[in-house]
Write a structure and sequence with these properties.
By secondary structure, the protein is of the alpha/beta class. It contains 14 helices and 15 strands. It folds into 3 domains: 56 residues, no CATH class; 175 residues, Rossmann fold, CATH 3.40.50; 202 residues, Dehydroquinate synthase-like, alpha domain (Up-down Bundle). Strand 4 and strand 5 form a beta hairpin. The structure holds nicotinamide-adenine-dinucleotide (NAD).
């Protein structure tokens, strides 16, 4: 077939012509069929345009694959003046790093930092930027769950605008827990439609969860993360030493998301949490006991690494959540409504854990978990000081949450359930009677009135 001959294929709705796109001397043009230009004769695109005609006119269907690349970097001493990760760790090409280091123009960074984190680490952040002669603006904000709204997003955007950021070379830096990272991510996704940003998580929950994926968001009309985007950062820099000042309850809170990954897909992580979980909680993940000789030297780094890798495995192929069958939704069917109903009583991970504890009972009711497995899971949760039941998690709330979920997921309720320790599947056939039975037993066995 010659270049000019157009490949067509008939569909039930008419004839469709596929066009590739190629750029020659700066101009993109369409070319019927697959790209046939050899090397040096133009730059092909992965995008396609499909053209079809019918009695009313023409339809062009654009298929444009978008690739996101981001780095999740585990490192030590992030705020040490000798460590350049915070400034250049998002750049993969060493030559580009060298070019930026040699540039005579000072680097500029706008840093949004959680107020509490600023009290604890703001001095070190300032000293770091001064030592690198960076022109910086440090913006401490009260990034709490109650304040997780568009107001703070707007506040950040105003400061970004005033600071006059160069969106190609001056990523916004967010330092704080999941709330701070989510709010800054949303602001960055809006400013000039997408401005690069960097996440520096300072809580366990944000270290293993909120930092590693693409989601940003704020609460809206009392609905959890109702406004948001799928915009990954250019990089997340993970330094476990921030956790040494995290209150015990918040360490436990983060361990709920870790336990989620363990229950869904990693028996080894579950066993590690069973055995070492309490010690990890006591030490705020600062322990350094050698438990193997393969570079992963202690329980804290092993647990966090497994949690991150298992999470990345689930997120990377489904960054925009087009596929609604998501194991990582375990613990997230009922918890958003519960968390918002009792705000600020329960932390995010605590609400997730209550949801998971109930679902464990649903699994047992369906015959997927043995009594012994259920007891091991619930004991592990309790040892991690996580709540396993809540007065306000009523059967009505459960039903309402699941109905709302059903509405938003194409009429099919996808329910990830453990089918063993470290094994899970997604089910869409859980009967209401099963849910009611499980609920009754859950309250009887774990409820405060038992
Ligand atoms: P958080 O951001 O509210 O932080 C918890 C508390 O710890 C805050 O009071 C904060 O000031 C304090 N803090 C933070 N770092 C500290 C430190 N190093 N030392 C002492 N205190 C410190 O809560 P979180 O648990 O980190 O995150 C929860 C949020 O994350 C929720 O809003 C949830 O929706 C979101 N989240 C997002 C994703 C995602 O994929 N984007 C995933 C999971 C959770």
């Amino acid at each position: 077939m010659s270049h000019t001959e157009e490949p067509k294929h008939a569909t039930s709705k008419g004839t469709v012509t596929e066009y590739s796109l190629i750029r020659v001397n700066g101009t993109w043009s369409r070319q019927a069929g697959p790209c046939t230009h050899g090397h040096g004769q133009g730059q092909p695109s992965d995008a396609k345009i499909y053209e079809s005609f019918n009695g009313h006119g023409v339809t062009w269907t654009v298929v444009s694959p978008i690739i996101f690349t981001y780095r999740v970097v585990e490192c030590e001493k992030l705020l040490d003046a000798n460590n350049d990760t915070l400034l250049f760790g998002h750049i993969a090409d060493p030559e580009e790093v060298q070019t930026q280091r040699n540039n005579s123009k000072p680097l500029r960074r706008l840093v949004v930092i959680d107020e509490t984190v600023n009290d604890l680490y703001g001095g070190q952040v300032v000293a770091y930027f001064k030592s690198w002669k960076v022109v910086y603006k440090l913006l401490p904000l009260p990034t709490t769950e109650e304040n997780k709204s568009m107001d703070l997003v707007t506040r950040i955007l105003e400061e970004v605008h005033r600071f006059g950021i160069d969106r190609r070379s001056e990523p916004i830096i967010a330092i704080g827990g999941g709330v701070c990272l989510d709010i800054v991510g949303l602001a960055a996704s809006l400013y000039r439609r997408r401005t690069p940003y960097i996440r520096v998580p300072t809580t366990l929950l944000s270290y293993i969860d909120a930092s590693v994926g693409a989601k940003t968001g704020v609460n809206f009309f009392s609905c959890k993360n109702k406004l948001g985007s799928y915009t990954p950062p250019v990089a997340a820099f993970l330094d476990r030493s921030f956790m040494k000042t995290v209150p015990r309850r918040h360490i436990s809170n983060g361990m709920a998301e870790m336990l989620k990954m363990a229950l869904m897909k990693h028996k080894g992580l579950f066993e590690l949490l069973e055995k070492e979980g309490r010690r990890l909680l006591d030490s705020a993940f600062q322990s350094s006991d050698v438990i193997n000789g393969r570079g992963c030297t202690d329980a804290a780094s092993l647990a966090t690494r497994v949690a991150i890798v298992t999470m990345l495995e689930e997120l990377a192929p489904n960054l925009w959540e087009d596929d609604l069958d998501r194991l990582v939704d375990f613990g997230h069917l009922i918890s958003p409504e519960l968390e918002m109903t009792v705000l600020p009583e329960l932390l995010h991970g605590e609400a997730v854990n209550i949801d998971m504890a109930f679902m464990v009972f649903v699994s047992r009711e369906r015959g997927f978990l043995t009594e012994d497995e259920v007891q091991r899971i619930i004991s592990c949760m309790k040892r991690l000081e996580l709540p396993v039941w809540h007065q306000q998690c009523s059967e009505e709330l459960v039903q309402n949450s699941l109905s709302a979920r059903l509405k938003h997921s194409g009429g099919l309720l996808r329910m990830p359930l453990p089918t063993g320790l470290g094994r899970a599947e997604i089910f869409n056939d859980t009967e209401n009677t099963t849910l009611s039975q499980a609920f009754r037993k859950w309250c009887a066995e774990l409820g405060s009135g038992r």
